[in-house]
Amino acid sequence: MRKILENVYSLNIVPEKAKTSLMNVTLVRMGMATALPQFMLGATLGHGMTFWDAMVATCVGSLIIEFISLGIGFAGMKEGLTTSLLSRYCGFGRIGSVLLSLVIAFSLIGWFGVQNTIFSEGILHAINHEVNYELIAFFSGVFLTLIVSSGFKALTWIAKIAVPLFFIVILYIFFDLFFSGNENAHINSTTAKLTISEAATIVAGGFMAAALTTPDISRYCKNKKHLFWMITLCILVGEFVINGISIYIANKLNTADIVSIITHNAGIIGFLSIILSVVKVNDVNLYSSTLGLANSLEIFTGKKWNYFKLTIFVGLAGTTLSMIGILNHFVGFLSMLGVIFPPIAGVMLVDYYILKTSRKILDETREKGLLPDESTIPRVGWAAIIASIFGACGGLIFNFGIPAINSILISGILYWLLIKNFFSKIE
Question: Has residue 186 got a pLDDT over 50?
Answer without folding.
Answer: no
